[in-house]
Amino acid sequence: MSIRRLWSGVALGAVALGLGAAPATAAPLAPSAVGDMCGAGYAYVHAEPVVRSGSTLPAGTVYVQYDPYTRTFCGFALKSRWVGMATDMHVATVGASGAAEEGNSLSGTSLYAMGPSREPAWEHDGRDCVLFGARMSDPQGNQYFHQSANAAIGYTRLCV
């Protein structure tokens, strides 16, 4: 990775986290700019927009990272709209525990981000898997869900 790309990711991250003058619809962070959200050992494995049917712009992005040494997933969501405004957010990673509970399911009002949510993987066909989900609300209370959300349960299975 070039120094220029690294610093552009850092600058974009500073804007999205409100350290600069953030526009109303900031661009989603690149995976290289969010690498420290989960901590050492975690690597980027997936990201997708958090969207609302009929809306042309996503509310943010949900990221999933994985630590192969501990076989643990980490998920977090970052806003790209309404940055700096208090809105409802939710992020969850459900793995070996089989349930969304304190520690792997986080909800609340946030200005910028929600997470990290951590959960050990479950093994399926020789691969490590997790269910992940994210939800955000706009200032009017309209809800946005991660793009691949299963309508019945609100989560998506991811295996590495």
Question: What topology emerges from the helices and strands here?
Answer:
Layout lengths: L2 H14 L26 E9 L8 E8 L4 E8 L7 E8 L10 E6 L2 E8 L1 E3 L2 E11 L5 E4 L9 E4 L1
Antiparallel strand pairs: 1-2, 1-9, 2-3, 3-6, 4-5, 4-8, 7-8, 8-9, 8-10
Name some characteristics of this structure.
9% helix, ten-stranded antiparallel sheet, 160 residues, 1 helix, 10 strands, disordered N terminus, mainly beta
Structural features, described:
- With 160 residues, the protein is mainly β.
- Helices cover 9% and strands 43% of the residues.
- Strands 1, 2, 3, 4, 5, 6, 7, 8, 9 and 10 form a 10-stranded antiparallel sheet that branches.
- The longest helix is centred in the N-terminal third of the chain and has 14 residues, at 3-16.
Strand content: 35-45%
| Quaternary structure type | single chain
SS-based structural class? mainly beta
- Main β-sheet, in a few words? 10 strands, antiparallel
What gross morphology would you assign?
Answer: globular
State the helical fraction. under 10%
**What is the CA-atom radius of gyration, in angstroms?**
15 Å
- Please, how many helices? 1
How many strands? Answer: 10
Order of helices and strands: HEEEEEEEEEE
First and last CA, distance: 24 Å
Entry summary:
With 160 residues, the protein is mostly beta strands.
